[in-house]
Amino acid sequence: MAAVVGIHAWPRPAVLACETLLVAVCYYAAGRLGLSQQLVADGAVVTPIWPPTGVAVTCLLLFGFRCVPGIAVGALLVVASLSTPGLSAAGIVLGNTVAPVCAFLMLRAVGFRVSLSRLRDGLALVFLGALTAMLISSGTGAGVLLLTDKLAPDDFWLVWLAWWVGDAMGVVLVTPLLLLLHRARRPPPSGRWAEAVGLALVVCVLVPMVTYSSVSALFLVYPLLVWAALRFQLAGGMPCALFASVVATVAARQETGSFGGLTDVETMMKLQAFNGTLGLTALLLSSVISEQLNTRRSVERACHELVEALQHLNAGGSGTTGAAGRDAR
């Protein structure tokens, strides 16, 4: 008989070290991606979308508290790439680590499902995971910069608002997409592939055209977003919203198209309002449609089971009646 070779699992410390390194690398890569599209408003550098918050919240939702060291290391690497580590850097790292943890705790407390198949899940992610929890990171970061004299008092509220919205948009736009990719399976062939390809082509052509047009017509993006969310739920709505948001951010950074002729503050406010409404529309509409479809499938399944049960009872009743008739004869 052939010898059986035992495969020993890695020691747990080694596994934790690899997980920490992987989370840190993902966080740092997302941070560099976010920093590539910076805006300047009254001398303050802001990021309209901060993807690392979405990465951090996703890792916590999927893998739990063991991701916290990786998030802290990744935040430290991002901050260290921008300035010399010091008191302000430590405060920013602390805020960027604690905020996703608080988001995870609040979402877990309300029974959040990573499938985002219910409206309550979308609302929880927006209002708890994004808008509420990210007050910690923005308040800590802007507050530390103010206390260390790296931020003028007059610029505090502008920087705080930009920081808060950027972190919140990272959760609203990035987290649903990563959760969707984590549970993605190859879909069966169907006639909807043609519609999906057509939608992708229309979005890729129309969104840049509208964004870079000298006529302010960003509202034309929303019918496409509604189409994507109605027909494909999260799988269509979130990529469409993220693509439109990235294109708008690039146009705002170049001060062209719908963002031409605006001041720095006006550009930041318009872009963040656009990104915010995009993310909210895509996430909440997709959640509503998914919940309705799941409810419909549940009702259809219950009706089918009821029909089978009635048929079984009728068959049993007919058999009993026939046996009784034979006995009477």
Automatic annotation (TrEMBL):
Keywords, sorted A to Z: Cell membrane, Membrane, Transmembrane, Transmembrane helix
Keyword Transmembrane helix annotated: yes
Residues passing through the membrane, by range: 14-35, 55-80, 86-110, 122-145, 157-181, 193-222, 234-252
Pfam families found in the cross-reference section: MASE1 (PF05231)
InterPro entries in the cross-refs: MASE1 (IPR007895)
Subcellular location: Cell membrane
Annotated ranges, domain MASE1: 21-292
Main subcellular location: membrane
The protein, known as: MASE1 domain-containing protein
Organism: Streptomyces ambofaciens
